[in-house]
Design a protein that fits this description.
Low-confidence stretches: none
Number of strands: 20
Mean pLDDT: 93
Bound molecules: adenosine-5'-diphosphate, magnesium ion
CATH topology of the largest domain: Rossmann fold
Distance between the termini: 30 Å
CATH class of the largest domain: Alpha Beta
Shape: elongated
Oligomer: single chain
Number of domains: 2
Order of helices and strands: EEEHEEEHHHEHEHEEHHEEEHEEEEEEE
Helix content: 10-25%
Radius of gyration: 25 Å
Length: 370
């Protein structure tokens, strides 16, 4: 196990800057996920850590040693590629043994380690098969076994579950988590899937256009996104955003959305008074908008509005409900007991204790600034 530190890492392909000023520390034994939309630079970052891609600027440290110039094979790093990259002409055992043979391990050690890896990843019985005779999930496990058998200081995983069907993805997600608990390795994981990132990681590093938008524990980024990008990326269905203006009304601060107004909780007042009169963006998650009929509490007084239901998607445990208020459309995640039906009226409650206010220009969160 080792720590990995990226200090102001940059990457250019010709004149094109794809990674900008990346600062990240991954601690000993930590599971950190780089997550972001396709093309934001996740694979490039992972390949630079592995030594498969030259670092244009900045320094990489592995266990506090400068590592920019260390050849890939001497970094103590194993990487599982998105395509798995198994050798097609080699059996499962031979694939797993490959790295050990290169490192010239004695034959008896190699056999012992193959057995360990086969059993760890439930591949017993498949040792002599060729990759073409395995299912996607089995190939994925062979790739993982091949990476783990060399006892890497750091394990890098590039979208390892993206080729699996939804059900197997869930199963492998739990297996990866179990494996990490058991081995305690330092893991840097890459995915474009925010749910996968949130469910697996000690911390998530959210990337946007080659930069880090925010790094933190899953719940911290969910509860306190620092900017609109993170707010919209984390959480499903995505956060609703409304254009508005902060104004004073009697003793309160309200956000004026033109068609209706919402009162800000007392405790946000000090953070927001500086923005009085300014245009802002209100962010509120679908799970923080309720059906008034089902929400008994009085504390939402004044933060209700009448809407018309557009579309209802029943999920069983929740209904995803698209609603309309004149020109404004937004999403609410309601309890299945709701009577919501298309084209019917409903009164919804906004839980403003859970809201976010973003500066329209900087797109930073005024309530949860870093
Ligand atoms: N070898 C390359 N030459 C030029 N551009 C590249 C190369 N590899 C990746 N890129 C560009 O770098 C950006 C980041 O790519 P990548 O790291 O693969 O993104 P991700 O893994 O997040 O989808 C993309 O715009 C991609 O087109
Ligand atoms: Mg990629």
């Amino acid at each position: 196990m080792a720590t990995v530190r990226l200090h102001r890492i940059g990457k250019k392909y010709g004149g094109l800057e794809v990674i900008k000023d990346l600062d990240l520390v991954v601690e000993h034994g930590e599971f950190v996920t780089l997550v972001g939309p396709s093309g934001c630079g996740k694979t490039t970052t992972l390949r630079m850590i592995a030594g498969l891609e030259e670092i244009t600027s900045g320094e990489l440290y592995i266990d506090n040693y400068p590592a920019n110039q260390i050849p890939p094979k001497d970094r103590g790093i194993s990487m599982v590629f998105q395509s798995y990259a198994l050798f097609p002409h080699m059996s499962v055992s031979e694939n797993i043994a490959f790295g050990l043979k290169i490192k010239k391990y004695p034959r008896s050690d190699i056999l012992e380690k193959i057995d360990w890896a086969l059993s760890l990843l439930n591949l017993e019985g498949l040792a002599t098969r060729l990759p073409k005779d395995l299912s996607g999930g089995q190939r994925q496990r062979v790739a993982l076994a091949r990476a783990l058998v060399v006892e890497p200081q750091v394990l890098l995983l590039d979208e390892p579950l993206s080729n699996l069907d939804a059900k197997l993805r869930l199963k492998m997600r739990a297996e990866l988590k179990r494996l990490h608990k058991k081995l305690g390795s330092t893991v840097i994981y890459v995915t474009h899937d925010q749910v996968e990132a949130m469910s697996l990681s000690d911390r998530v590093a959210i990337m946007h256009e080659g930069r880090l938008a925010q790094v933190g524990a899953p719940l911290a980024v969910y509860n306190s996104p620092h900017n609109i990008f993170v707010a919209g990326f984390v959480g499903s269905p995505s956060m609703n955003f409304f254009n508005g203006r902060l104004v004073r009304k009697d003793e309160s601060l309200v956000i004026d959305l033109e068609t209706f107004q919402l009162v800000l909780p007392e405790r946000y007042r000090s953070k927001c008074t500086g923005c009085l009169g300014r245009k802002v963006i209100l962010g509120i998650r679908p799970e923080h908008i309720y059906d008034k009929r089902l929400s008994k509490t009085e504390s939402y007084l004044g933060n209700t509005t009448d809407v018309v239901i557009d579309v209802v998607e029943p999920l069983g445990d929740r209904d995803i409900v698209e609603v309309k208020k004149e020109k404004i459309c937004f999403t609410a995640l309601l309890e299945p007991e709701t009577n919501a039906a298309p084209d019917q009226p409903m009164t919804v409650v906004f839980d403003m204790t859970k809201c976010h206010i973003f500066d329209m220009e900087s797109e930073n969160n005024i309530i949860h600034s870093p």
